[in-house]
Amino acid sequence: DEEELQARFDAVIAADQKIEPRDWMPDAYRATLLRQLAQHANSEIVGMQPEANWISRAPTLKRKAILLAKVQDEAGHGLYLYAAAETLGVDRSQFLDDLDAGRQKYLSFINYPTLTWADTGALAWLTDGAAIVNQVPLCRSSYGPYARAMVRVCKEESFHHRQGFDALWALTHGTDAQRAMAQDAIDRWWYPALAMFGPPTRDSVHTEASMRWRIKRFTNDELRQRFVDICVPQAEALGVRLPDPDLRWNEERGHYDFTEPDYDELRRVIKGDGPAGRQRVAHRRRAHQAGAWVREASAAHAAKRRARAAA
Ligand code: FAQ
Description:
- The protein is mostly helical.
- It has 13 helices and 2 strands; from the N terminus they run H-H-H-H-H-H-H-H-H-H-E-E-H-H-H.
- The protein has a two-stranded antiparallel ribbon with strand order 1-2.
- Strand 1 and strand 2 form a beta hairpin.
- Helix 6 (117-135) packs antiparallel against helix 7 and helix 6 (117-135) crosses helix 10 (220-238).
- The longest helix has 29 residues, at 144-172.
- The model has no long low-confidence stretch (mean pLDDT 96).
- Residues 35-36, 39-40, 43-44, 47, 74, 105, 107-108, 123, 127-128, 131, 134, 157, 195-199, 204-207, 210, 216, 220, 270 line the site of Phenylacetyl coenzyme A (FAQ).
- One of its GO terms (cellular component) is cytosol.
- One of its GO terms (biological process) is phenylacetate catabolic process.
- This is Phenylacetate-CoA oxygenase subunit PaaA.
């Protein structure tokens, strides 16, 4: 009965083992996973847009090849994550419909524009860096398909992060104008990256349950602090300034003190506001419609193969 199933589920979680698709799980656990997995997958595919914006204008063939590979990786991440989410019994087309209808979210940073070439570097250094800090603990998430998808995703994110650092390094070791362009991009991307970790823990509606279920391993604030601590020495190595006059080492805490992002702005951007919000959703819908013939052709091809195999 239900009580026994619940006890078995609790025991798997307590033993730090994995819940698998065929296992019984509480409805709320399943709903939270679907919500987070869909948001995560959506972020990967809508997140292709800010950088794809620069593929045709990359300064060298090498930078173009790197950027192309990164954007393609993000499409791949979206696919692994939709596949992981489908193990919970929802069809991928439903996720895409929900995304296009605005019923499901994607991460806030994607609603900011990439104004210069340096933005591709700053975006990758900061937001992929934040994504790694957030996702490494998700490799130990209690839901098996999510945890396993994260292992490969994290390896690829690590390449994305390093190439962003490398692109910025080239600029900060270039001309004065290039250095200024890198600094300007970092000034604009620092707070969107800090906001990726979500609302402060005290306002986070899902943290308590997600940590109890071991979907999340750390609170939003713990991960945000870890990210700040990692970024400071990297910024020093790059020779750039992080745009926070109150950023300083706190000996007592053993962490950097920093100014929190503007959480009212985060709330607005989550709802679809943000300089590029409408453009991202409109582009996503257009791209989906433009790809209808590919989906139809592959369905027709699959039907033909099935018919041939049956004959
Ligand atoms: N933006 O109670 P909490 C990448 C929502 S992309 C938008 O704290 P939770 C590729 C949250 O969903 C990064 N919404 O929620 C790339 C919830 O809404 P709901 C991939 C946000 O779930 C890189 C509500 O606010 N990683 O790597 C945000 O416990 C570079 C309440 O919040 C992920 O997607 C936000 N920043 O914790 C591409 C991370 N924050 O559903 C291009 C996976 C919160 O109640 C360039 N997700 N919300 O309506 C997570 O880890 C968690 O869901 C959190 C939020 C940490 C985002």
